[in-house]
Amino acid sequence: MYVVKSPLPDADLKTVAEALQGALVDLVDLSLVAKQVHWNVIGPRFRSIHLQLDDVVDTARLHSDTVAERAATLGVSPDGRAVTVANTSGIGETAAGWIQDKDAVGMLVTALGAVISRMRERVGSTADADPVSQDIFIGITADLEKHHWMFQAENG
Amino acid sequence: MYVVKSPLPDADLKTVAEALQGALVDLVDLSLVAKQVHWNVIGPRFRSIHLQLDDVVDTARLHSDTVAERAATLGVSPDGRAVTVANTSGIGETAAGWIQDKDAVGMLVTALGAVISRMRERVGSTADADPVSQDIFIGITADLEKHHWMFQAENG
Amino acid sequence: MYVVKSPLPDADLKTVAEALQGALVDLVDLSLVAKQVHWNVIGPRFRSIHLQLDDVVDTARLHSDTVAERAATLGVSPDGRAVTVANTSGIGETAAGWIQDKDAVGMLVTALGAVISRMRERVGSTADADPVSQDIFIGITADLEKHHWMFQAENG
Amino acid sequence: MYVVKSPLPDADLKTVAEALQGALVDLVDLSLVAKQVHWNVIGPRFRSIHLQLDDVVDTARLHSDTVAERAATLGVSPDGRAVTVANTSGIGETAAGWIQDKDAVGMLVTALGAVISRMRERVGSTADADPVSQDIFIGITADLEKHHWMFQAENG
Amino acid sequence: MYVVKSPLPDADLKTVAEALQGALVDLVDLSLVAKQVHWNVIGPRFRSIHLQLDDVVDTARLHSDTVAERAATLGVSPDGRAVTVANTSGIGETAAGWIQDKDAVGMLVTALGAVISRMRERVGSTADADPVSQDIFIGITADLEKHHWMFQAENG
Amino acid sequence: MYVVKSPLPDADLKTVAEALQGALVDLVDLSLVAKQVHWNVIGPRFRSIHLQLDDVVDTARLHSDTVAERAATLGVSPDGRAVTVANTSGIGETAAGWIQDKDAVGMLVTALGAVISRMRERVGSTADADPVSQDIFIGITADLEKHHWMFQAENG
Amino acid sequence: MYVVKSPLPDADLKTVAEALQGALVDLVDLSLVAKQVHWNVIGPRFRSIHLQLDDVVDTARLHSDTVAERAATLGVSPDGRAVTVANTSGIGETAAGWIQDKDAVGMLVTALGAVISRMRERVGSTADADPVSQDIFIGITADLEKHHWMFQAENG
Amino acid sequence: MYVVKSPLPDADLKTVAEALQGALVDLVDLSLVAKQVHWNVIGPRFRSIHLQLDDVVDTARLHSDTVAERAATLGVSPDGRAVTVANTSGIGETAAGWIQDKDAVGMLVTALGAVISRMRERVGSTADADPVSQDIFIGITADLEKHHWMFQAENG
Amino acid sequence: MYVVKSPLPDADLKTVAEALQGALVDLVDLSLVAKQVHWNVIGPRFRSIHLQLDDVVDTARLHSDTVAERAATLGVSPDGRAVTVANTSGIGETAAGWIQDKDAVGMLVTALGAVISRMRERVGSTADADPVSQDIFIGITADLEKHHWMFQAENG
Amino acid sequence: MYVVKSPLPDADLKTVAEALQGALVDLVDLSLVAKQVHWNVIGPRFRSIHLQLDDVVDTARLHSDTVAERAATLGVSPDGRAVTVANTSGIGETAAGWIQDKDAVGMLVTALGAVISRMRERVGSTADADPVSQDIFIGITADLEKHHWMFQAENG
Amino acid sequence: MYVVKSPLPDADLKTVAEALQGALVDLVDLSLVAKQVHWNVIGPRFRSIHLQLDDVVDTARLHSDTVAERAATLGVSPDGRAVTVANTSGIGETAAGWIQDKDAVGMLVTALGAVISRMRERVGSTADADPVSQDIFIGITADLEKHHWMFQAENG
Amino acid sequence: MYVVKSPLPDADLKTVAEALQGALVDLVDLSLVAKQVHWNVIGPRFRSIHLQLDDVVDTARLHSDTVAERAATLGVSPDGRAVTVANTSGIGETAAGWIQDKDAVGMLVTALGAVISRMRERVGSTADADPVSQDIFIGITADLEKHHWMFQAENG
């Protein structure tokens, strides 16, 4: 059977593996939610938000790939299947149908807030276990918080 | 309430809307399945298949965006949320865990085959209802069948 | 005298020639109208609409070139002169002067709607006469309807 | 009502506004005439002239945008609509139908000559009124005269 | 033995396979003929035609690859070998030796005319059998007819 | 001691040197003010204005470099230090803290208006003294007035 | 009133906010000082130092934007106005006038040394308060220290 | 009749002309053979060989153009027509139908070996007759031998 | 004598200097080993591994430059000479001669494993001494571990 | 005989023609002198001056083309032949042989000074005769004076 | 005094130095002659020849730089001054004034022929003395002969 | 066992193999020496030499790859391991520690001189044995001698 020799002791690996799998699911879902809003937003600010959401999608896709491959690097099989995402994402339910621009901004503020809050926990939990993974979480958090600021500012 | 004045009569719109929504779900799921295999494939052909799968992901992401925006263009709200994908995708269940390279090829042959078969039905069903949408389905089918050939050839 | 040997029988050629000439005029006028609004729009959404209109201009210029050269390809001299555009365009009169952003969106919804409606007729009328020209009209319709959706969504 | 505070006194503004509006119409028409010939030229020199005309189109489109936005910058609503172009352009009537290559060169020599002559007047009339607009007219004249030389040289 | 499961029933497959193989041979030969003339053309219009022919070569190479891979996609082995091209091309014999520029244009008008005429038949014959392949033939025909126009116009 | 042999007589040099030093300070301050608003703007139009302000920053940085190097070219040491900018800029005080989007637009209209007005004076004062420097001021004025128009139009 | 919900507790936020504001001022001033020397340097090494200084300007501008937007992200209004820079920068006074090349190198060694020393304190003070901001300070320190080495090496 | 004044004496010209014509035919055929295998290869190494073959095609197309134009440069009409290639190529017959990956590698080893062996003879025969043509053959041989090594290494 | 004023106290500097010098040697050797295998690998997987090894070379060269310049930045002279690499590298002896593809993968798994293990120690040892250098080691470790995963996966 | 209809009256044309012809010769010679020094410079500052001189060559070549084509545009045949340059250039004799770096800088200061002084006269003499040509001379003067500053600064 | 230690014995160096200096003068003059014709050509083929001549200019400039730097590399001071070019070029006198297109082609055939003939002698004379310089002459000859063919073909 | 069928007879192969292996070692060592100086150089000319050395590194890396792959192409296993480079390089010992700029130039003059001298011998020894390899050595010599000139000129 295929086994990568992990550079981490078992307890640390377990901690880091959970953090990476959680981040993977959150980021894949964020990419799907942002696309959903990208397609369904309406209202005077349509174009601006439509474009802004693709920036979020780019960020989410880039980092989901990074965390999944980091998991594989540590010998942990990543799981980014639709069912897994649907069942374990940290982002709450997204309503179907058209979304007024103001509501779209609010939905992103909420979704990003949820993902950031879990990502900050991962920064903390992996600090001792694996500084390499922690550094990845720090970079992701920086990017997500920047998006978070922009959507909050639009509510200002 | 927001209403796009659809250029199609109601019956045609219903046919095309179902085709577009079905294609959206299939393509989003294809992008997730291809990424899942991209991360979990192992074996001597790892690198080649790993790269090949990102070509599939690119195709699936590009076309999922096209069909979702085509639905919106016709006044139909597209639904590409994780739950919807998990529940209505035409691709069968994907097993978790590491995937031997030979099995990875087989999984893609099966997944692409399932999506293509449904896409060809959509080409047929939308021919009269909306030649613009049909043309999109034809283009998607061409791209998917080309990927299908390549994975089949690797089994040759 | 210069005569291209047309690949089409005379009756088909007449049908296709009229469709192409009509499309040429509509598209040239669309590019002029979109530029007119690009320069004259005012209001809080100025910058977003100003940029969006250049996307419409790009689409209109690209496709006007395609249909004019398609006409020449079939041995039919295309006519995109200002007088011809002014006299035969399918887009109604555009008022002079500054245009409030909300009105700008409405003007584009109307102008695009008019052009799309005629373009869809061309898709139908050329299906048997010349599938090559029809395919061009289908592609143009897809692009115009996408722009149409975006301006409609901004009214949502 | 929307009013840009013009940096120019009224008399100067009137002079400059007329110059800019006239240039806008001439340049839009030049772009349409050059495209018309681009599509309809025939003869052994077809390809060379066909390409050369797109260089003229690029120049005319670029500068028509500049002068229209300069007008708006000075608080003057620019008018580049097809009807306005058809009625007020400084370029004489362009015949419909195929154009022999030699005639195509002659048509451009004439059309460019007409526009240049008016543009040189604008350089003079705006020198005191607005050196910023004058500098734009000088740059346009330089580009048009260079095109003019090339077509004349082809008649040499 | 290697077998692609074709998405088409046998009778349709036979029709489409013949069309694709025929197109492959015609397009490979067109690329060779265009290069032959590219190297052997002489006369005052040498440079213009020399460059124009490389545009034809690009078109022919691009589409020959597309139709060959489309055949493979449908489970049909494509044959683009020199012997096959020499024996089954739809383009008549090309004389050896230097070619006067005027004759070069005439040769391309003839060669393109022959290929287009067969390509239009393929558009018709595959319409029901495989709309995906038909769409490819339509796109090829559009490109070839555009080249055809340009060479004809040079004879105008 | 280092002395560039200036191409201008002393009186002219003094005039031009003052104009260049004044322009340098105004443009450096404009770049700082535009960045300040870029970071502090809030409200529904946040994203559009945030991006628009970076266009102003690019313009201001580009031209501040040009005028500073023009001064050095004439043998005059340019001074763009923070203290000098703080003390001699033509732009009035900018308040600290968050800025509502509507106010952000107003602040730029005011700041650009102040810089433009002084720049137009420089166009006048340097006309005889140094047409090379004057030409630089004319180009800067054109760019600043174009930004000015856009922010004014957003207030329309 | 506009309030971003900061992800940090108040005490941490205060620490981080001070560090970010201090870094912003230092970096804006560094960009102004480096430009000042870029314009005023003279001597045989003019060209090399002139170019090297623009690398410093690029670094300083890039990171000043990052820290300002990081402050906004945490709900803290950044202040990069000329007056604030002039009054609170960690870089000592820069003399006006031409700068001999050897002195220019010395000035940059001193200026970079001052900024680096404060930046290292920020790395320490924010380690517990906000690892995301700390990571930004670490990256900035790495870049500044590399520039510092290069100028020091030129004094070697 | 058209005659290029060849820089070579007649005997040398005959030698070089034969070498160039032979190389042209070999290289055109190599491009066709490599494409044939590119389309028909099957087996686990499909993707890698499929891509590798397009590198061979690029090399063969590039150099066939060079030798054909070198012949024309020396006043010798090059002949790269399908019939000529089919009758005089130095590459043996290529079987029709699907090709197992291992066999594909073997076919390229053989085809490249045949072309290289003839090309080395041309390097020798043209050394005195025309060092310019010899230098071209040396460069071609270097490229072909590098491809040869790679396919041989895959058989290792 | 040339002395960079190091930002670190002597004890910390000694720790960091040793870590950087060790990393420099390991990375230079990794680039040489990867090139050695790049040139000598044989077997069916030749092309894939040949390309993959150049990715490793790029990583090793990039990071060797970074750590050498970081050492210089801290006032420590880096030593990357062949003799030093030969004598102090952490990678074991590499056998001369051709390398079967399977063995090539194994050699890289071993070499990367050795370097990673030492690099992780450097992450630990420099955490307190110099977080800037530590951050560099963390980034290097992330990249090397990703390469390690891929070669291990190929053994799966 | 070929005659461009000049847009200028005869007296003005004579003035402008002389200015353009003089500028052409000066700029061609400047490009040759700068290349001569580029090849022959020696000394510790070799590399910096060698690169700097190619910037001068680029400027001189670009503007020599502009003024020559401007002359042709006005119906005046430009003369940039070696003999004409050798006999009428405004740049004094350049000594043959190696050039010490310090002397190289001095030679450029002198050469640029000579060209600039004549170019400023042309700015004056063409102001009334042809503002389009004057604007070209102003732009050239700006570029040359910038180069002049840089070489002078290196003597500082 | 500055002396490069030449890798060649004195007699060989003398031979090679003369060849390089001769080539430098021929190539600089070719670039001037080609530009002269580029500006003065008239007639129906103006545009094609105008563009073709800039290709010659690019070739001549590129290779003149190569041979001048090769001379410097061998310790020989290159001389590309206008006077030297005017006095020692292998290209005969070029008449002033407008040049009919047919004559322009003839002038280039003659000029290229003269340079090529001397360049071929240099290929011969340097074969033993310095194969590195010879290889440069071979490459230059190849490029010039290709241009020569094209202009000759236009006379065909 | 893996054997490439070499195109050369055994005696020639031995000669060429030794030349290629020797060149490989020299070039790898040159890249390491140049990097060593790139990192350790100090003094006023630091930046210029630092950049110049990376040009040498690029040349050395590019050509070391070429000669190693040429050896493999001829069936000879290349050896570029650190131990082999340390033991057999033609470049003398490089001292550790900081290097004054003047000394850095001297070191490169010496190192390049040593490698060039051996490379010229290889040009001679392989002329008959393998003109393809000889042509590679000629090209390498040309590049190295150009670098050699530049460093020598800096000592002038």
From TrEMBL, chains A, B, C, D, E, F, G, H, I, J, K, L:
Belongs to the Dps family. This is DNA starvation/stationary phase protection protein. GO terms for molecular function: ferric iron binding. InterPro entries: DPS_DNA-bd, Ferritin-like, Ferritin-like_SF, Ferritin_DPS_dom. Residues 18-153 form the Ferritin/DPS domain.
